[in-house]
Structures are given as C-alpha cells and as structure tokens.
C-alpha cells in the first residue's frame, strides 16, 4: 500500500519540533482542501460570481476566492502559526503570537477558470518566524523563498492532488476516497531536463521585452528555426495546473514582466505563488527565476509583491537567461 501523507510527514519531520509543526500545518491544510474540493464539486451557482470587490493586488474577488480564504484561515487558526498572509486579505493576520511558523497562501489559484470547470488550486508557503518578526511583523513575509520550511499546492482537477516539498524532494499525493485520505502517487518527482512544451499567455506578446519575444519566436519557428525541432504550447491559466504538468513531463512556463502599469513586474505574486512553486520545482531538479535571478534568492518588498516568473526544465530556463543576457 502506497504510503499515506501522514506516514510521509512522519518520515520527513522525525523528532524535529519545528518540522513537526510544519507537518501538522500541512495535515490541516489537506483536510481543508478536501472540504473546499467538496464545495467545488457540489457546485451551487455563484461560486464563480464576482463578489463586487477587488483584493489588495487589484484582482476581482470571486465568491470562491472568499470561501476558500475562510476555509484555509480556519485551518491556519488550528495550526501552530503566528502569521497568516493571504492573497485575499490586504494585511497579514496575527494568529498565535508565540508560534514558530508563518504561512502565506493563495487560497484559490486560477479564479478566472472557476465557472468554466477548468482545473484550479490552492498554493501555500510555510516560513519560520524569528524574534525580529514578532517585533516587526511587516518583515515576516519579506523573507527570501530559500527560507521556506515547506511549500506546495493542491490541484482541484479530475484528481484531487497535493504536490509538496519540505526541502527533501518533491512528492505528489492523490486523495483516495476509499483510503479516506491522501496516498503517495509519485515519490520524489523529477522534472525532465528537456522541454518539449512551453506555457505563456501569448496574447501579451506586444507587451514583452525583445529577448522574451525572440525566445518565443524561436520556439514558434520550430524545426524551421534555430531550435531545429518543434514545440507544443499549453496555457491553462491556472498556475497549479501548468506547474503540475511541467513537473510531470517537463516544459517551461513564463509570465514575464510587461509594459502594462500594474504588470511591470509580471502578474504572479512572489510570496504565495512564485516562491512555493519555485521551492517545489527546484526540489524536483528544475529551475525557477525571474528571467535571470533565482526566485528563491529574491527578497520580497511585501506580501503582495509581484515578480516575473520563468520555471521548468533546467536547461530551458537557463536558455531564457542567455537570451536576456545577450539579446543580439
Ligand atoms: P489567481 O487566480 O490566484 O489570481 O492566479 C491567477 C494567475 C495564475 O494562476 C495563472 O498562471 C495566471 O494568473 C494567468 O494569468 P492570465 O489570466 O493573465 O493568463
Ligand atoms: Mn486572484
Ligand atoms: Mn494564483
Ligand atoms: Mn488566487
């Protein structure tokens, strides 16, 4: 019988008190994810309806964004967390002041896909809390992604999946109703080094810098161009779905900065999207950068800071950096 999530967390945490708190938090998130998934599959009109407000990043808030935020905040309140930072809340929330961990979360990733029944997800990042953070809470979500103690994402698709890492490989679990919990689907997934697919929202082509345009042009030229082979393209519009596909069969994902005023640093958020994705991708042997700098080395300016994001098969991510370094 494949190992369960509980057995995996036991093996990852050992007797380390802080790691055990990370494990407890992930267990609580998994329970919350099953609850959210049941709400999604139960449907009910309105989950995709705009609530009328926008979040701190200016995104339209959908009903399910808010429902998901509430479900995961309840899970956070039951976990050993001092701070909770969410895409759907302007500021970090103080929970247990003396707890040793903080969590940043994208409660519902892929909101534009809710009403079309396309795969969506939840992304989480777990960080340590130091004394300096208790003194100045604004610092807690300005830690670099390399400080993460655990990170991952749930995929609400035909399968309910958990992709996670605690820094020792990246592991995939599938929710099994028969088993009544998450069981291991892929122990230590490894990203294929060669990319045959690319993921980018091509409608933004006119907003990209020239090196990104040249890089995509060469992929589109396929076997008639300098790459001398054909590539396929996939763009789901849910980061979790594109990331899981790339973990499974290789590829490269790009959301570059573009000239539009609020997307100068790209659309994706560093703390609760790029950092956890980068943690899982790098622990699977891939790479994640802002085009040139490793995502995990970037110091966030704040909880909702954005960053350009390029991740996937290592060789391909490095090739993008060469196009940027030498645009000729
Ligand atoms: P969210 O729904 O949490 O705001 O995230 C949406 C993100 C990400 O999931 C996806 O890769 C990207 O937005 C899609 O952006 P476009 O709609 O601009 O293609
Ligand atoms: Mn959003
Ligand atoms: Mn998102
Ligand atoms: Mn979201």
Distance from N terminus to C terminus (CA atoms, Å) equals: 55 Å
Ligand types: 2,5-anhydro-1,6-di-O-phosphono-D-glucitol, manganese (II) ion
Question: What is the strand tally?
Answer: 15
Largest sheet: 8 strands, mixed
Order of helices and strands: HHEEHEEEEHEEEEEHEHEHEEH
- What's the overall geometry? globular
Average of pLDDT: 95
Radius of gyration: 19 Å
Main sheet: which strands, in order across?
4-3-5-6-7-8-9-10
What portion of the residues fall into strands of 2 or more residues? 15-25%
Unreliable parts: none
The residue fraction in helices comes out at 25-40%
Compute the number of helices: 8
The secondary structure category is alpha+beta
What would your notes on this structure say?
The structure is a single chain. The chain has 328 residues and is an alpha+beta fold. The protein contains eight helices and 15 strands. The protein has helices spanning 5-13, 17-42, 63-77, 131-135, 210-221, 239-249, 270-282, 314-325; strands at residues 50-54, 60-62, 81-86, 93-94, 101-109, 120-128, 150-156, 160-165, 170-176, 181-186, 197-199, 232-233, 252-255, 287-289, 309-312. Strands 4-3-5-6-7-8-9-10 form an eight-stranded mixed sheet, sandwiched between helices. The chain has a five-stranded mixed sheet with strand order 12-11-13-15-14, sandwiched between helices. Helix 1 (5-13) packs antiparallel against helix 2 (17-42), helix 2 (17-42) packs antiparallel against helix 3 and helix 5 (210-221) crosses helix 8 (314-325). The longest helix is centred in the first third of the chain and has 26 residues, at 17-42. The mean pLDDT is 95. Bound molecules: 2,5-anhydro-1,6-di-O-phosphono-D-glucitol and manganese (II) ion (3 copies). Residues 59, 87, 106, 109-112, 201, 237-239, 267 line the site of 2,5-anhydro-1,6-di-O-phosphono-D-glucitol (AHG). InterPro entries: FBPase_C_dom (IPR044015), FBPase_class-1 (IPR000146), FBPase_N (IPR033391), FBPtase (IPR028343), Fructose_bisphosphatase_AS (IPR020548). Mg(2+) 1 binds at residues 87, 106, 108. Residues 30-183 form the Fructose-1-6-bisphosphatase class I N-terminal domain.
